[in-house]
Amino acid sequence: MRKNNSTNALNEQFLFGICELNSAISMISGRWKSQIIYSISEGNNRFHLIKKELPNISEQVLGRQLKELETHRLIVKRELPDTVPMGIEYILTNKGKDIIPILKDLCEWGKEYAEGKEILINECS
Fold this sequence. Notes:
125 residues, mainly alpha, Arc Repressor Mutant, subunit A, two-stranded antiparallel ribbon, globular
């Protein structure tokens, strides 16, 4: 856990204060979050279904990423009462649903300009 008055925490607060983009990127940053969001949007709304869809993620990391997405209110966790043991499903909030088209656009942008692809100088102006 990071101290609130650490240099990293203070820099983060500064960046979040000057541009909402930094805050938005922070919500979906991390190796797996965008894939988890997309997986849930495709109907893989239980822990084991997400794990099956993303087999290279460890259970510990998946659990931590789900908690972070829940903290940012991109997903909510709902208990399934008629399951033994008690099951949990993850549901995208409206905030989470609203980011799906943005993630799809970023995916298309990545296909066009992924690392290793040449970017022409005149495209940057």
